[in-house]
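ok here's PLP-dependent aminotransferase family protein:
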Amino acid sequence: MKRFCITFVEDFPKYKQLARHIKKLIDKDLIKDGEKLPPIRVLAKYLNVNNVTIVNAYKKLQQEGYAVLKMGSGTYAKRREVIKAFKKEYSETFKRISSREMKENIDFTGETTSSDYFPLKQFKEVLNQVIDRDGAEALIYQEALGFQGLRQSINKYFWRGSLEEDDILIVSGAQQGIDIASKALINVNDNVIVERPTYSGALTVFNWRRANIFQVDMLQDGADLESFEEVVKKNKIKCFYTMSYFQNPTGATYSYEKKKFILDLAEKYNFYIIEDDYLSELIFDKNIKYESFKSMDEKDRVIYIKSFSKIFLPGIRIGYVISPRKFKEIIQNSKVNTDISTSSLMQRALDLYINKGYWEDHIKLLKDNYEDRYIFMRDYMEYKIKHKVEFHPPGGGLSFFLKIRENYNLNCRELFFKAKEKAVFITPGVIFYKNPMDGDKYFRIGYSQTDKDKIVRGIDILEQIIV
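and the structure:
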């Protein structure tokens, strides 16, 4: 019963205080999922309150999905359904809001660059040139590996000609790349390592494959190597999924030393690395140098995945995969079995866009604009909200990962709903964890879809909500 002991404060309904206290106990797993809560009369007597206070507290817990009443038996804690219900509500929220409506709100959830920066005139130009040049052939399916011209351009401009043409497989974005790589590598009950927290789409894929998922905490310079090595020593690991630059959601970037150490472990313990190169184009901190796992890979241990959708435009749905020789054929077959081919027209247009030098100009434009926003948001959060949240400036990318300080009772789910009421949208931390409650004090906010005015208004609102 000691767990339920609470000191009530004046001028705030006791039943609400008690409900909040019990929710925290459930969230922290101090009350187990399915555990029976104390009988109303027993708890009322223990807390020296009337029965109605306990009845109302239990009703509030039921309304919020934290408890279930079983007639004739009592009230039971309900933890898993809370997160399941929240994730559904979170997903439904964005299904109900049109992109036009979202622009009118303060959208801190963006993971891709703003359409305001999309070079519509230039892309329209290259689309017309492709159609004039290639005619109807531009609209038909191409070879399974992808349009040869685009693969040549990727090799030339991004890999300095160090690859063979058939090393590159064009895919429909990073998510498909993760999916086909997992189909090639992972069978039921295979062991995989992911960063903690990590991209929810990758967790979904590995769960679909019915893999055993081990987690390693993310630090400011990459995964915790002590924990990582302990996992690979004790378990036969099949692969490690990582986002090497501006990891989603933490924003952490791997140091050269950690990448080298993990590559050595991969060779020693015979596992493979799935590298999701997320937003490495947007490096703002001059101390961060670009060197991917793949570029350092001397033992052919890395499956490299890169999406153009995040940095260019989500609608084009183009990315590419570079795989070890051992898995090249099975990954290519997996792509064919998934959707045969990625849009031929968009591949050809992107190829021409890169060859005309437009890509380089576009990235410079994005870096200049987003670095300005990054610095502005970082500095404003330092000034306005750092007494209520903790965060580490990532030095690039499109977002910050924040933790609500422990002396504030609010969790990220409550923050999401309260912010939504004020037309501010955040990404709650629970969606990035295998055990969602581990992320209940965290949230991600991005600046890709917000100007400086919205950044100020949004941060001001969050500061007011966190009490």
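+1. Residues 139-356 form a domain with the Aspartate Aminotransferase; domain 2 fold (CATH 3.40.640.10).
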